Amino acid sequence: MFWPALPGTGSIVAMTHHTVHAYAAPAPKAPLERTTVTRRELGEHDILIDIRFTGICHSDIHMARGEWGEGGHFPLVPGHEIAGVVAEVGPAVTRYAPGDRVGVGCFVDSCRTCENCLAGLEQYCTGELGMVGTYGDTGRDGRVTQGGYATGLVVDERYAVRIPDSLPLDAAAPLLCAGITLYSPLVHWKAGPGTKVAVVGLGGLGHIGVKIAHAMGAEVTVLSQTLRKKDDGLRLGADHFHATSDPATFEALAGTFDLVLNTVSAGLDLNAYFRLLRTDGTFVQLGVPDRPLPVAPFALIGGRRSFAGSKIGGIAETQEMLDFCGRHGITADVEVIPADRINEAYERVVAGDVRYRFVVDASTI
Description:
By secondary structure, this protein is an alpha/beta fold. The protein has 2 domains: 19-177 and 332-364, Alpha-Beta Complex (Quinone Oxidoreductase, Chain A, domain 1); 178-309, NAD(P)-binding Rossmann-like Domain (Rossmann fold, 3-Layer(aba) Sandwich). The chain contains 11 helices and 17 strands. Strands 3, 4, 5, 8, 9, 16 and 17 form a 7-stranded mixed β-sheet that branches. Strands 12-11-10-13-14-15 form a 6-stranded parallel β-sheet, with helices on one face. The chain is globular and about 60 Å long. GO terms for molecular function: alcohol dehydrogenase (NADP+) activity; zinc ion binding. It comes from Streptomyces mashuensis. Its EC number is 1.1.1.2.
């Protein structure tokens, strides 16, 4: 059996039905290189996705470089911001049909029976299987998952989401991770009219957070190290923009915010940021630093403030986020690149030289 290319794409080539072209890190810190990976045959509820675009998340770089601990599964195909078109469906699939525009985010399975899965919080699955990451994880079939830097993906229909027709696939791809990472805490902590939200960092995560918080009706402030991106922040929907390198910022904004979303992975003086919260305000950690963050209890106790964390969202909430973005015309600001520039893009992400998300054109893999 062969996968013919869909008309006009050339993405899925004439190969055995479970083999696709991909870019993989052969070992930690090694440059990514072109290769092939095998996908499972379609099961009853599986769909085959012709991948069109895949965003580059900083998590991809951490994983490919082995920066989140020893071990890991290599060769590793990163990519969990996947946008494409359904090419084929299993016999029991009911949600999608060939030609549908779909996305896959940070996970491709979960136990489906624990309390969190049943509540639509699959990202916090507590079952034996746990949340199965889109890449570098072990699925229920015992196979290591490989991600979206590839021309095709097989996934259970329950772990795919529909991308609204109003959103271009390239600029929608980062919503599958960056978008839901910001949308979920904004909804959970009830951002909206009458609330003041601060977004720390105007990068791949932060720039989408500004757009979403603005669309929700919140008063939005960007807290960035310098004023270099001020014009961008205001264009994206921020009401205010302040430099955190200026000590006066923390004096002027003390006790201001209901919600602070920290999108950066670098270590910060958290206690200084806690003091920016109003009474009962919440600071939410979204970025993942490579070392523990010190917390002074009195910075929280003094205003009944909360220090919380959040990661992505469940499948239903991810669909809700995409529909919200579709209604409001929200996408990522992207730079689309061919696959042979992935290694260059990694270096530029680490250097902060992207506005604001690299997206790989899968037809070039």
